[in-house]
Structures are given as C-alpha cells and as structure tokens.
C-alpha cells in the first residue's frame, strides 16, 4: 500500500501553533502509523520556506519526506507522484485541486480529517450536513465513497 500525504495540509488539522516546530512530532506519528500498517508513506511539504533551488528529500525512519524546491508547490509534486505510481495509491489531502487531479490517475483520496479520525478513533462529526439528497438507491453509497470506505478499512 502506497500513501502520499500532503504534509502541511494534514499538519494544519493536527496543530494550531507554529507549523515548523511541530513537524518532527507530526512525522513521529506518521512513522508510527507506517510501522504499524507496514506500508510505504511519502510526506510532501511545500518548499516555500526552503532556500534551496533543489528538491530536498530525507528519510524519517522508513517514511520518505520530500520538501519541494521553493518554486514548486507540493500540490504539483503530489499529482506527479500519484501519476507515476498509478492506480491504487492513497492520497491524504483536503485540497480539492489535489483530490480532483490525482483521482484521474486512479488514486483514492481521503481527507485529512478522515485520516486523523481513523488514526485516533475520533467520533464521527455530529455537525455533518445531511442536506445532499442522492438519486438512485438511497442505501448504496456512490462508487467513489464505497472505494473510500474500502480504503479506510485497510488503514
């Protein structure tokens, strides 16, 4: 199982303080998850605060961490990597631009909030909006949602 994580996007769900100070703690959580699930994880961060013109890649335990070069957005790197890996890759991001683009290449997308709830076992959000009325069989989830649920069970 290959998982690509939109680093700052997921980090913002977990922490409200200074993001850069929380990266190591965040990566410890992700690495613990990777060890538990025995999967490949790549975390991609924007390189806007990276003074290097080159992409910077390092390992945090077995987790691959990529800081894009300062002129490349993490979104583009995530989309390119999802295209390269192809069908079956799981992308963790709440960014609609990223989600829409990676799904074209067969990726399954999971929002940052859903991923965190899955890791920490949080209760379902009680403020969920049930106004969306579906056509067709009301008991059956949309194909995209069924695939998402199946993927969440693997996590």
Explain how this protein is built.
The chain is of the alpha/beta class. The chain has one domain: Rossmann fold (3-Layer(aba) Sandwich). The chain is built from 6 helices and 6 strands. A 6-stranded mixed β-sheet has the order 3-4-2-1-5-6, sandwiched between helices. Strand 5 (90-92), helix 4 and strand 6 form a beta-alpha-beta unit. The N and C termini lie close together (9 Å).
Quick summary of this structure?
The chain has 155 residues and is an alpha/beta fold. Helix content is 44%, strand content 17%.
Order of helices and strands: EHHEEEHEHEHH
**Biggest sheet architecture:** 6 strands, mixed
Count of DSSP-assigned helices: 6
CATH class membership: Alpha Beta
Low-confidence stretches: 124-135
Helix-residue proportion: 40-55%
Output mean pLDDT. 83
Structural domains: how many = 1
Spatial order of the strands forming the largest sheet:
3-4-2-1-5-6
Structural class: alpha/beta
CATH fold group: Rossmann fold
Oligomer: single chain
Shape: globular
Strand content: 15-25%
Q: Could you tell me how far the N terminus lies from the C terminus, measured between alpha carbons in angstroms? A: 9 Å
Based on the structure given, which CATH architecture is correct? 3-Layer(aba) Sandwich
How big is the Rg? 16 Å
Query: How many DSSP E strands?
Result: 6
């Amino acid at each position: 199982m290959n998982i690509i994580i939109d680093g700052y996007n997921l980090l913002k769900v977990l922490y409200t303080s200074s993001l850069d100070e929380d990266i190591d703690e965040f990566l410890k959580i992700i690495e613990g998850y990777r060890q538990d699930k025995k999967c490949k994880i790549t975390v991609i961060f924007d390189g806007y605060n990276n003074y290097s013109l080159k992409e910077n890649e390092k390992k945090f335990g077995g987790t691959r961490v990529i800081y894009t070069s300062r002129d490349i957005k993490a979104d583009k790197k995530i989309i390119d990597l999802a295209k390269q890996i192809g069908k079956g890759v799981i992308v963790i991001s709440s960014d609609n631009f990223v989600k829409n683009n990676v799904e074209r290449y067969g990726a399954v997308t999971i929002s940052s909030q859903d991923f965190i709830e899955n890791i920490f076992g949080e209760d379902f959000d009680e403020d969920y909006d049930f106004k969306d009325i579906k056509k067709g069989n009301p008991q059956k989830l949309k194909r995209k949602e069924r695939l998402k649920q199946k993927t969440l069970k693997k996590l």
